[in-house]
């Protein structure tokens, strides 16, 4: 049998790659090239990573280091069946050593390589954190209520909504979706937002839950690249009515159970369920609160009507019997006196 040898180095071989032995074939080829030292930029405040020319969302630090090595590694353009393992070890606060173990084939020739590279972290404050630290904001969302002071619970819910909206926008890559400052005031809460867009999103999200209305007031604050720069104040007014309010709606008297995009409650005259879009309500007036109800004796139940003893005059007054009434004659019930008449108030209000 005739012996085969490499025409380049003269060694005996029975496997050729482009007419030369494996040693000669891979001698001038590199499976991968990676610099001995790499640099990665991370924000020490929020953990954002600077890559591809811009700041990106926070990542796991170890994953950031591995990604830095992957992006900086150049592979032979003819490889196949790549098996790449990267192991990172932290050396100190700002240095990692990454061990690279790579196996692949170049035109069928098996090739492997092991090497170490060092990644050095440059801790630099990102654009967003710099803006927050500098008090930067493009808009103010002022949460107030119509003809009343918002409740503590309402303001807490509004804050949770605002923070949730900002977090979702940040996850989608909006670097200006931050709340720079929150001010708790006697009349409500002010959110200083990083972008006009975020201000609008927060207003829409709060109104979706509570209802209300918005007015916008732009203010010219300067110019950039020849364009006017504005800050916008969003005056968000929550609905006038809250749970427990007794209101007059056209010819009905309603005890409010929920007030938001829709007003829902109970018609005190009939006891039937009431629900309407807040913006469709025309003649609305607050009469009193369910907390203003007083005790009165149910004198008689006549089916469609009942007789109640007025606790002030001790006279029997006949009113319509609401569906929710379950008391029997002789029992005490809760009533309210309004300009629209006397009404029974449900026990759970």
Average residue pLDDT: 86
Give the tally of structural domains.
3
| Residues in helices, as a percent range | 10-25%
Q: Indicate the radius of gyration in whole angstroms.
A: 37 Å
Q: Which quaternary structure do these chains form?
A: single chain
List the helices and strands in order.
HEEEEHEEEEHEHEEHEEEEEEEEEEEE
Shape: elongated
From the N-terminal CA to the C-terminal CA, the straight-line distance is 104 Å
Structural class by SSE content: alpha+beta
Largest sheet: number of strands, sense, barrel closure: 6 strands, mixed
Low-confidence stretches: none
How many distinct beta strands? 23
How many H/I helices? Answer: 5
The strands making up the biggest β-sheet line up spatially as 4-3-2-8-7-6
Q: How much of the residues is beta strand, in percent?
A: over 45%
How does the SSE layout of this entry go?
Elements (H helix, E strand, L loop, with lengths): L21 H6 L4 E2 L3 E6 L6 E3 L2 E3 L4 H12 L1 E2 L3 E14 L2 E12 L2 E15 L3 H7 L5 E7 L6 H20 L7 E7 L2 E6 L2 H15 L2 E12 L2 E12 L6 E5 L2 E8 L2 E6 L5 E5 L6 E6 L4 E8 L3 E5 L6 E5 L11 E7 L2 E4 L5
Parallel strand pairs: 2-8, 9-13
Antiparallel strand pairs: 1-5, 2-3, 3-4, 6-7, 7-8, 9-11, 10-11, 12-13, 14-15, 14-18, 15-16, 16-17, 19-20, 19-22, 20-21, 22-23
Helix pairs in contact: 4-5
Walk me through the structure.
With 349 residues, this protein is an alpha+beta fold. The chain is built from five helices and 23 strands. Strand 14 (245-249) and strand 15 (252-259) form a beta hairpin. The model has no long low-confidence stretch (mean pLDDT 86).
